[in-house]
Each structure stands twice: as C-alpha cells, then as structure tokens.
Amino acid sequence: MPAITFTPPRAARILRGAIAAAAVPLLLTACSSADKKEAATSAAAVTIADQWVKAADGGMSAAFGDLINSGDTPRTVVSATSPASGRIELHEVVADANGTKAMRPKRGGFVIPAHGRTRLRPGGDHIMFMDLRGPLRTGSETSVTLTFEDGSTTTFTAQVRDFSGNQENYVPDHAGGESHAGAQTPAHGG
Length: 190
Ligand SMILES: [Cu+2]
Hints:
11-stranded mixed β-sheet; 2 helices; binds copper (II) ion
C-alpha cells in the first residue's frame, strides 16, 4: 500500500498570510479616521449663530449671539477684536450686594461645553466694545474676530441693531491697577 501523507497546499498558506498582513493596515486606517471626527482646532469646532451688535453713536457697545460647539471637548474664547472698536473685553454681568447689576471682565473667557451652546445676551455674557472708533448705525455690519485658547481664530460678521435695555455699570477688572486717584470702583467678588 502506498503511504499517504497529507501536505497542506502551499498556495493556500501563502494566501492566508497575505490576508493577515493586509488586515493590519486596514485596521490602522479605520482608527485614525475615527479620531479625526474631533475638530483639530477650536475655531473648527465652534460656530456662531444669531449674532448682532448694539447700535451706538460712540463710546461703548457690545456683540451678542450663540457660540455652538460641535466637538467632544470644551472650547474657550479668550479674546476678541473688531475694526469697530479700539479695545474689546469679554464681559459677564453680576449683581452686587444691593442687587445692582454690573458688568466686568470674565476671568478665563467664555467656555463652550462639548456639544453645547454658550449664549451671549444683554444682561449676561457679552463681547464688550470698549472704545468705538465711530458710530455703529442700525442696519450696518461689522466683523468680530474671536481667539480661542489654542490660538485658533474665527471671524464673523454681525448686523447692527437697535437695543435700549440693560445699561449696566462697568466694573474694571483690575481696580487700582493704574490710576489710584479718586477710585470709586465698587467692590466686586467680596
Ligand atoms: Cu460689558
């Protein structure tokens, strides 16, 4: 009787090896494309909606709107600029012991939660135009550039609207920082 020996087909073994080798790069590709769902910069993750600027003849004004974060991590607006104002601050509104509302620079800036929305409204957080270069007329437009914590920036255009409510007092952030003469800055933060 002839001896029967089983030899696995050589071609089949080579093919199995090739499939295993090919699977590895496919998996790596799948992982890296999944990671790219999160925006690379804060500017790419955050958009603004319903933005507008308060009409004013001069002096101060403010910009409002909704900051919307489509990403998986919180993002923060740390500063803003606009050709309409020589200086801009990020403000919040707080009530003092007497219940009088006052606005002041918001420490740390505006945080927009992951998949969340931060509303900038009269009487609440707002982008403060400290020193208008000229009048802001109803119906005109101005641009505002936001800088995020990662250094990325986004610029939006806002329409100027009439608004007469919420004339809060202004509380400077650094009381007595430069001028001590006649400081009547209301205490804040207790
Ligand atoms: Cu303000």
